[in-house]
Specification:
Elements lengths: L22 H11 L7 E3 H8 L3 H13 L3 E4 L3 E4 L10 E6 L5 H16 L3 E6 L4 H14 L3 E4 L7 H10 L4 E4 L7 E4 L2 H20 L5 E6 L4 H18 L7 E6 L4 H14 L5 E5 L2 H13 L6 E7 L2 H7 L6 E6 L5 H14 L6 E3 L3 E3 L4 H4 L20
Parallel strand pairs: 4-5, 4-6, 6-7, 7-8, 8-14, 9-10, 9-11, 11-12, 12-13
Antiparallel strand pairs: 1-3, 2-3, 13-15
Helix pairs in contact: 1-2, 1-3, 2-3, 4-12, 5-6, 7-8, 9-10
Amino acid sequence: MKRPSRRPEDNHGRVPVRSYTVESVIRAATILKAFKSPSEVVELRTLTSRSKLNKATAFRLCETLVEAGLLDRVGHQGYHLLIDMTPSRRYRIGYGVQSRVTPFTATVTDSLKAAASASNIDLFILNNESSAKTALLNADQFVREGVQLVINAQLHYAIADQITAKFSDAQIPFIALDTPHPQAFYFGVDNYKAGRLAGRYLGKWALKAWNGDATEIIMVGADFGGPDVKARLVGFHDGIRETLPRARNLQSSFLDAKGPFEKRLDTIRKLLRRRKIRRALIGAVNDTTALAALQAFRDFGMEDECAIAGHDACIEAREEMRRSSSRLACSVAFFPESYGPSLIKIATDILHGTQVPPATFIQHELVTPANVNQIYPNDSWMALPDKPLRVAHFS
């Protein structure tokens, strides 16, 4: 069967068409395909340039498409696409998990996997194992695998520049999860704000429970997280000073505690062996550390000599706050179960060329013994076995 002939392009740059096609429809499609994303507002002169049509033809087509409900007129000569012309494709995104043993990270991972599946995205997962060396090796593997974007959760600030360089050289955009990296899109906690929220509450707690008679402030974290993660403890310290009148006269110290739960527990036990601590306000960088501190004080029969603020509001911390007279006074919730849809939305916007803010901060909410049941009313469905605190596994 003989194919229909095509008309050669004429001197006026008109689009060649087959004998059975409608040239005006092809030109209208050229206008629609000139939009790079559904959120873009494009001026007529830009559409003229992208479509390679003359201005009068482009204008008539745009106005016709407005009447057809495919374009929206914005301003004097701008147009906005009302349909999604993005080709359907299965993106492949790399996800570097911080560690699989933390409840917080496990919840983030489950949420991200569900959101990726719902969006028809192939999620290629590697475990950074809380190790700087492993995170660097995984970055190389993401590059070799040819992923189109990386969501990376690794806490070692010292290698942030190296991670950035690997993805930048490969022209792979990436989202830094919870630890900012140079040139990366950031998604996670506003660390100073979260810490200040906890500190303000603990200062008020000390006024009510101890009549303001605290003796010291202890901030417990990990040095390798860098200044951005430490900002959480700086905010904690500032929050106490805002609400506790005598806080400026208190001794303040930082304790470097890292590793799994048992190692953090041992670090805090050593502190209690070295010196007697009385009425200490303790700010922990996360709930793993907060629960380790609480267990250490219990082991020494000194629970009444501390008040502790954590971060994450993981289910173990929430269960602890439900115990009568617990000295885990509060934790700041980050709602990791909501991370997945937000991360996938940001990732697809980046891949579609849509403008994305350099930093996206997640919701924070203070959780205390007074409101834990209102914020997490369904925890009884996930009731933990009745076991000693020390055998819980975190990192």
